[in-house]
């Protein structure tokens, strides 16, 4: 039987992962353990690619026994460890040289942890205080240094639009151009385009700006209508942008709503993604 190359390409256009942040309420409340997250992703939702959040490691990312247990569990269940979202390790766009260098070095252990677990990527932030140009110069330096370390370990360093200047698609894309490292990229998030209290970047333009550098996509959801569509984000429009960029890769479910439970929100996001992806 001849192989349908088009069908294969279509099938592999997008793979779906689950971001641990979707369970942040349960994790913070102690109702769920970090170690159980990947197994729950596969058992309850049929998702075998996972994205971790650094704070839920509770400073055990350098504990050999803890990391070995996590790796063993995921390997035994055929789960792909894909990404670690890293927060609270200092600002890579800090305009103070010493503070920025400390932040860079603080991220090294997460590159090492990602490599040990078999992840391809860590997600970082390009935050800093100062003018847009000052923070850009600092972020290019901080990300550049961290990306050099990532390149040595073959781990991608990617930046999410995560508030402040990073939520300005033009600003972040210009940072990427200046860093100019194949191991440095972006993680376009459908929902995080608030630059300041009074300023919001157009989310569709923002994703369009960031897709040329994307090494992942964060499918943020907040609420759904009776048809199962996201009420604040036009998913069809977002995936038109992704497809127009000729991008293939892993899209992470990140439910952040309050109307539905975390489990129900994840299921609704997965159903929406499955329906949208089939259209391409």
Description:
It is built from ten helices and ten strands. By secondary structure, it is α/β, with parallel strands linked by helices. The protein has a single domain, classed as Divalent-metal-dependent TIM barrel enzymes (TIM Barrel). Helix 9 links the parallel strand 9 and strand 10. The N terminus is likely disordered.
Q: Which residues sit in consecutive blocks of at least 5 with pLDDT less than 50?
A: 1-10
Number of strands: 10
Q: What is the N-to-C succession of helices and strands?
A: HEHHEHEHEHEHEEEHEHEH
| Strand order, sheet with most strands | 6-5-4-3-2-1-10-9
The rounded Rg comes to 18 Å
* Strand fraction: 15-25%
Mean pLDDT: 94
Range of helix content: 40-55%
Indicate how many domains the architecture comprises.
Answer: 1
CATH hierarchy, class: Alpha Beta
Tell me the major beta sheet.
Answer: 8 strands, parallel
- What sort of overall outline do the alpha carbons produce when their principal axes are compared? globular
The CATH superfamily title: Divalent-metal-dependent TIM barrel enzymes
CATH topology-level fold name: TIM Barrel
From the N-terminal CA to the C-terminal CA, the straight-line distance is 24 Å
Enumerate how many helices there are, as a single number: 10
- Structural class, by secondary structure, is alpha/beta
Under the CATH scheme, the architecture is Alpha-Beta Barrel
The quaternary structure here is: single chain
């Amino acid at each position: 039987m001849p192989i349908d190359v088009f069908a294969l390409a279509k099938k592999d256009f997008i793979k779906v992962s689950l971001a641990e942040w979707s369970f942040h309420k349960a994790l913070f409340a102690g109702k769920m353990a970090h170690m159980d997250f990947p197994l729950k992703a596969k058992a309850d939702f049929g998702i075998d690619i996972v994205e971790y959040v650094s704070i839920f490691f509770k400073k055990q990312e350098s504990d050999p026994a803890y990391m070995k247990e996590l790796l063993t569990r995921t390997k035994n269940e055929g789960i792909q460890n894909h990404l670690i979202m890293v927060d609270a390790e200092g600002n890579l766009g800090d305009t103070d040289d010493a503070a920025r260098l400390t932040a860079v070095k603080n991220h090294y252990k997460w590159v090492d942890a990602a490599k040990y677990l078999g992840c391809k990527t860590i997600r970082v932030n390009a935050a800093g205080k100062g003018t847009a140009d000052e923070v850009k110069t600092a972020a290019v330096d901080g990300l550049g240094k961290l990306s050099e370390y990532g390149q040595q370990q073959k781990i991608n360093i990617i930046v999410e639009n995560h508030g402040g200047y990073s939520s300005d698609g033009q600003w972040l894309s210009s940072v990427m151009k200046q860093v100019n490292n194949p191991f440095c990229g972006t993680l376009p998030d459908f929902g995080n385009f608030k630059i300041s209290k009074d300023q919001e970047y157009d989310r569709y333009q923002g994703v369009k700006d960031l897709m040329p550098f994307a090494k992942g996509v964060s499918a943020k959801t907040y609420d759904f209508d009776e048809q199962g569509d996201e009420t604040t984000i036009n998913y069809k429009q977002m995936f038109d942008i992704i497809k127009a960029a000729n991008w293939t890769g892993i899209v992470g479910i990140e439910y952040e709503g309050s109307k539905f439970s975390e489990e129900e929100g994840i299921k609704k996001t997965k159903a929406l993604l499955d329906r949208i992806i089939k259209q391409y």
